[in-house]
Inverse folding.
């Protein structure tokens, strides 16, 4: 309703998660920090300017992509890929109490983990509390909510989970054929192109499989400990591999998050990738030369 194409809205959300690499909860941060024999926070702090810079660059580039694709119209988009846009379902006067409902489980989880960890709040419990709140503020029949709940599960499996499973089968097929192992094996023995391999290896594997984690961990475990032989530090080579896997995942139509965002936006994952892939490639080139 704000006038943006659903694909650029989804792409903006998907393409903004690079800043997550400032979190000590990211497994790659812990893995590389251990290899480099430094604390996780030292590793994050050392590469924070690059991470923040890549995130800001992606924001600017996403705006440029929006202009290039003409993804903003004052009148909005009534038709998206030949189907009616979902914007007609939006209320003219949003209810604040209704708007809080989807955010409540997240707020509960964050607050409980910070101020009341003894509660050991689970995702399921937080979601249940959020559901009860939604029923209360909307004054909807619990029986009707239950029906909608299972209808939503069915649609989710049909249009989202099914595609994720198919993508997983495709990735497993590549592994079974030995494609991924052969590629990683080449990178681990090509010392002269170690830095280029750290950038392109996880990036390409992430695009092909929808997840760069496997290739990133394999590269960092086999190659990164020998970074000094290539004239690099362990933390710089490890960070490059980790962040390149992230850029590749954000450029893949097979990534689970990409498929979910596409389902919510009502567009094809390829429509989102058309917008995120150029941005992530430019960010990868920038990090390569800065790293």
């Amino acid at each position: 309703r704000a006038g943006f194409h659903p694909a650029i809205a989804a792409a903006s959300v998907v393409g903004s998660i690079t800043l997550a690499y400032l979190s000590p909860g990211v497994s790659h941060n812990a893995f590389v920090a251990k290899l480099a024999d430094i604390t996780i926070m030292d590793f994050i702090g050392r590469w924070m300017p690059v991470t923040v810079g890549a995130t800001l660059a992606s924001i600017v580039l996403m705006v440029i992509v929006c202009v290039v694709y003409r993804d903003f119209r004052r009148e909005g988009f009534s038709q998206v890929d030949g189907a009616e846009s979902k914007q007609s379902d939006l209320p003219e006067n949003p209810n604040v109490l209704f708007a809080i409902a989807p955010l409540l489980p997240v707020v509960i989880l964050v607050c409980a983990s910070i101020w009341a960890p003894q509660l050991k709040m689970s995702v399921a419990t937080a979601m249940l509390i959020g559901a009860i709140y939604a029923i209360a503020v909307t004054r909807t029949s619990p029986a009707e909510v239950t029906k909608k709940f299972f209808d939503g599960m069915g649609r989710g499996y049909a249009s989202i989970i099914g595609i994720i499973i198919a993508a997983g089968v495709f990735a497993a097929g590549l592994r079974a054929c030995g494609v991924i192992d052969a590629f990683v094996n080449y990178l681990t023995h090509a010392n002269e192109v170690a830095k280029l391999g750290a950038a392109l290896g996880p990036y390409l594997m992430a695009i092909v499989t929808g997840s760069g984690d496997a290739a990133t961990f394999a590269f960092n475990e086999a190659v990164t400990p020998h970074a000094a032989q290539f004239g690099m530090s362990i933390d710089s080579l490890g960070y490059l591999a980790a962040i390149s896997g992230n850029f590749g995942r954000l450029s893949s139509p097979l990534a689970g998050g990409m498929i979910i965002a596409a389902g919510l936006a009502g567009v094809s994952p390829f429509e989102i990738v058309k917008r995120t892939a150029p941005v992530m490639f430019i960010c990868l080139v920038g990090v390569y030369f800065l790293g």
